[in-house]
Amino acid sequence: MKKTTGTDPSITSQWRPATQAVRAGTMRSGHGETSEALYLTSGYTFDSAEEVAARFAGEAEGMQYSRFRNPTVDMLQQRIAAMEGAEACLVQASGMAAMTSSLLCMLSAGDHVVAGRAAFGSCRWILSNVLNRFGIEHTAIDARDNAAWEAAVQPNTKAFFFETPANPTMDVVDLEFVCGLARSKGIRTIVDNAFATPVLQRPLDFGADIVAYSATKMMDGQGRVMAGAVCSSREWIEEYLSPFQRNTGPICAPFNAWVVLKGLETLDLRARRQSANSVAVAHFLEDRGLRVLHPWLESHPQSELAHRQMAAGGPIFAFFAPKGREQAMAICNALELIDISNNIGDAKTLICHPATTTHHNMGADGRAEAGIEDGMLRINVGLEDPLDLIDDLGRALDRAGV
Questions:
Q1: In what order do the strands lie in the sheet with 228-232?
Q2: Residue 365 confidence (pLDDT)
Q3: Could you give the domains of the chain?
Q4: How far is 360 from 370, CA to CA, in rounded Å?
Q5: Residue 323 burial by CB count (10 A; 0-12/13-18/19+): exposed, middle or buried?
Q6: pTM for the whole structure
Q7: Sequence-ordered list of residues with C-beta below 8 angstroms from that of 278, at least 6 positions apart, any chain
Q8: What pLDDT digit, counting tens, does each position of 346-360 carry?
Q9: H-helix or E-strand spanning residue 190
């Protein structure tokens, strides 16, 4: 009997998440390779002019051009969709390509978006400097406040757009309430789930319509390539995202897709181990008297909600240097093991100062509105022994006078 390769959704949907992360989407060539094949090709040949005409007309199955489809990219899309519990997924060249495409593909001049004000700096920039230029307005709210969502809805509101947990404030949004409110009013929800991944949180299970990712982060997991992903219903993908993506070109490269495929095989292990490590490091910092924002700590104001929605708290959290920016930078500069980097999701522990890096382009007023203080540090806890990380942080805090 021929073994299942992972291309039949009716079978892969029955697998458990850890199995989906390793097997879903796998499509073997006639050589029977165990590792997914890497198809480095931009185009394809055809046996006849009639065959290529039928493919472009949508009358025959098969590849046309790698801006439209590629076998390696297809495998990644099927795997992420299976893990997410989504009908379909398209992958993009970067996380910001995914966020931008998910908004622009369905919004038009005169539409309105309600967005969480605590968000990655580039996401806020897209709302204020791209959508606004094309007549698409937005209202930024405190996404933790359920009443604020309802109050911000206008007759022309077409989308809710937010992160949970948010970058870098770790705000947690009540997915069930916000997604339920949106559906009751015919509004689509777009959830950036990059901090949690489908291993730790599945927004579609709470009623979200669209889930977007920077696959550069936890999905790759080793800081190697750029990629993004958008998951939703097959109808929405085919009606809105696919035509936009095919014609504007933010497609994921086959090599990048292959690297992320390999990363997904260990995502479950990494996400859970890094989550446990981050809790240990967060407890240490809190015990040193620092203010810490970690959704898995009792001190987090939305810890109960996080525990209801998530399987673990994730590897990323924020803490604060009590004396502000200069001391925060002194802590970074005194670290010997932990690297200074604006990336997240890596197997290596990384730290950055959001006010001067990831959220610099928001300006002082924008950062204040989003809750990003000058003393804030964001840390991505990796796979190192947490005791070594604690030792490194302890030395750095001492040297910085904390």
A1: 88-92, 228-232, 210-214, 188-192, 157-163, 112-116, 137-141
A2: 85
A3: 9-37+70-264 (3.40.640.10), 268-399 (3.90.1150.10)
A4: 12
A5: middle
A6: 0.94
A7: 294, 296, 313, 314, 315, 316, 317, 379, 381
A8: 999 999 999 999 888
A9: strand 188-192
Query: What is the reported pLDDT for 2?
Result: 54
pLDDT, tens digit, for every residue of 105-150?
999 999 999 999 988 888 989 999 999 999 999 999 999 999 999 9
Count the neighbouring beta carbons within 10 Å of the beta carbon of residue 154.
12
DSSP of 119-168 = --HHHHHHIIIIIGGGT-EEEEE-TT-HHHHHHH--TTEEEEEEESSPTT
What whole-number distance in Å separates Cα of residue 85 and Cα of residue 14?
10
- Predicted confidence at residue 1, as pLDDT, reads 45
Q: Is the pLDDT of residue 397 over 70?
A: yes
Q: What is the pLDDT of residues 205-216, one digit of tens each?
A: 999 999 999 999
